[in-house]
Amino acid sequence: MKRRILIAACAATAVCAVSTAFAAAPSASNGMAVDSKGMTLYTFDKDKAGSPSACTGGCAEAWPAAMADASDQPSGKWTTVSADGGKQWAYDGKRVYTFKKDAKAGDMNGDNFKNMWHVVKP
Q1: CB–CB of 67/87 below 8 Å?
Q2: What is the three-state SS of 55-109?
Q3: What b/e string do you get for 54-66 counting C-beta neighbours within 10 Å, with b at 16 or more?
Q4: Domain spans in the chain, listed from the N-terminal domain onward
């Protein structure tokens, strides 16, 4: 009996480990793209496909890059691009970011900021 419980516990642990090993691309919530914490994702008009981020210095502090984990898997229009320290998510070729002034999941305080920042709408 104890052996069956032990085997079942080990099997459950293995299934959990496998199910979290491959994370998905960002998801959609209420018509907008969000990261794994539910924070809104944005694109920056000054970014050009295939080029380094145009958001540096103070810009990068206010608009942190949405970074992909090593286990994250691109899907559909979601890809990753090289960024300082790893890979950044991109949607339809455009790098994506979060906004420091979004305090909680669902906030969209950066939408149309200076007419250059836009919510990703998959």
Answers
A1: yes
A2: CCCHHHHHCCECEECCCECCECCEEEEEECCEEEEEECCEECECCCCCCCCCCCC
A3: ebeeeeeebbebb
A4: 23-119
Written as tens digits, the pLDDT of the chain (122 aa) is: 444 433 334 344 333 333 333 356 788 877 899 998 999 999 999 999 889 999 999 999 999 999 999 889 899 999 999 998 899 999 999 999 999 999 999 999 999 999 999 999 98
Q: Give dist(CA 20, CA 16) in Å, integer.
A: 6
- Say what the alpha-carbon torsion angle 46, 100, 77, 122 is, to the nearest 10 degrees: -100
In the numeric block, which tokens belong to residue 116? 């250059």
Q: Which two tokens stand for residue 9?
A: 């516990």
